[in-house]
Structure formats: C-alpha cells, structure tokens
Amino acid sequence: MTIYINGRFLTQPMTGVERYAYNLCKAMARLHQPFTVVCPKAPIHQDYDVSDLTIVHYGIGNSHFWEQCVLPFFFIGKKDYMVLSFTGLGSILIRHKVMTVHDLSFLKNPSWYSRTYYWYYKFMTPLAVKTSQHILTVSEFSKSEILGFYPFLKAENISVVYNAIDRQLFKPQTSDLRPQTSDITPQTSVPFVLCVSSIDPRKNFVRLIEACQGLTGAKLYIVGKYNRVFSQASALTPQTSDTSPQPSNIQFLGRVSDDELVRLYNQAACFVFPSLYEGFGLPPLEAMACGCPVLVSDIPVEREVCGDAAQYFNPLDPTNILHTITQYLNNADVIKEKMRQKGFENIKRFSWEKSAEILIQKLKEIEEV
Question: Residue 367: which residues within 8 A CB-CB, separation 6 or more?
C-alpha cells in the first residue's frame, strides 16, 4: 500500500494542527516509513524544513477547494493507496483515507467561531468521517467526544495518536546560555507569568486578564495571534468601558519565533493555561520541557495530558485563577523544583516516534483487512 499525505498544511504558517502534521511526517521519515506528500503548487511556508520529505506539487490553488475538489484527481488511476490528512478534514471524494479530528469545539460551543467556519465544519466533518477508513484523534477525551457526537462510529474506528514536543527545541536553557537581551521581553527584575495560545474565545483570556488585574509583584505576558475563524477578535479584556486602559502589568506579545518562545518559557516564573476546551493542549508540555512550572484549567483533557505535573484551577472563576497564580508565586522557592521534575517526568509519556509507531501499526492493520 502506497501512503500519501495531504500536504496542504505545508503552505500555511505552523500553528497547532500544522505542527502536529509536520512532526508526524518527520517522525515517520525517521522511522523509514515511505510516503509521499502531495502539496498544492503554492510555495512551501518558511516554517518547514522539508529536505527529508518526498513532495509532489499538484493542481491549482491551496484552499479548501484544492483539498476537496482538486486533490482527488491526483489519485485517478492509482490503486492500493491510502491518503492521510493530519490537520482536519480529508476530501470526501477520497475513500481510501485516514483523517484526523483534533477536537469538536465548533460543535461544543458554536458561538466561539465565525458562522462560515461553524457551518462548513458542521456539514463537512460527518461526511469526511463517514467516508474515511479510520479516524485519528489526539486524546482519549477527544475520542469520547467524537463517539458522543457521531454515534455511528465504533471505538475501534478511532485511534489516539498523541501530540508531542520537539525536545531538541523545547528544553531548559542554563543561565549562562540565556541571551542577556530580548527583542520582546524588557529587562526587568519583576517576574512574569506566561500564557501561550491562539487568541480566541475558548482560550478564556477574558477571565485570565480579569484575574491578573489583581496580580501584584508580577506581570502577565500573552503570546498568540488572532485567527479570523473565531468569532471575537477583541475578546481580550474584561467587559469594562471602551475607554478603560489596558492594565500596566499585562502585555500582549503577538506571535513570536520558536527561539523567542523557548526563551520566554525558560525565563517565566510560571506558565498559565486557562483554556475552557481543548482536544489536547500542547503549550503546557512545551513549558514543562523547558522546566517552567505549569498551572492549568481543571478540565478533563488537561488532567489526561498533565497528570500530577501541574497545578489546577477553575477556569470559570477569575478569583480562583488569581489565587492559584499567587499561591504558586508566593511558594515558588519551596515547590518550583518539585514541579519542574514532575514536568520532566510527565513529558516522557509523549514522543513523535511513539505516535508515529502507533500510526504505522494501524496502517499495517488496515492493509491486512
């Protein structure tokens, strides 16, 4: 069976789902699993090193139209093949495919998304699921969500292939290796709390900012970029008057480079992740890999991903968010090293090679049927 990968993601900036797709491809290549990535003719985005990948450019455009209507023509006349889509929808016209459902947040809370995005995925996702030979997802939590929303599926139709981190990139920096200056973080003796996430309603920035207005002796830095698929571009401040100034202890850094992100993880007093809903939630693991203590929402998927390596708070309660952050900062001298070590131990559960091995084994099973 010849394996092809839907490579549309390579024409887009590397965010969460693109990072998942890219790292699975790289891990499969390291495991010497042959495959070909079929890409639109648009340029490969600069975020990706594809020197070790076999890539074929095909068709016109690089939108959902390419994925749904152009890509299927590539497979006319081909036999004994499988198409893998790692970032979401696969073409409903391709029957020999394995697709990935990262989460169903658009069904869980439609108000988080633009109407166009919601209706497109509400209509297309079940069609893509029904026309797939197997489904991948990124957590046991997401698997249970998929089975709940799409009861025509059976548990054996879905495999959990976890996210992981690039341990060559996300790692502790010893003090003598840390840059003395930063393009983004001002040199200050005031510690900072770090939050890394896309800027969208389900990430719960409103309550985090409300909480951190009461934070004393520390700042909050938020790394992330707004994505137009979400319904609220300005859901970043509590519902106060339009003329209310941004609190001086809160700073938005926008999107940063991977090198800068690693620097921030290493320099932060702690990392906070207040999300209301995730399919997995990768930034807490990135923070742990850098030795940054992690405080996260007490939601099922974060319990699954972080285990006992994080401290948990109620994401619906700004007072509890503030209390958890303050309690950590006040006791950091006592508990920081213990949390760091638990974090290092926790991330051992996840690796791209382990995930790629699960995927390769599943492909072998499909081929044998």
Answer: 1, 82
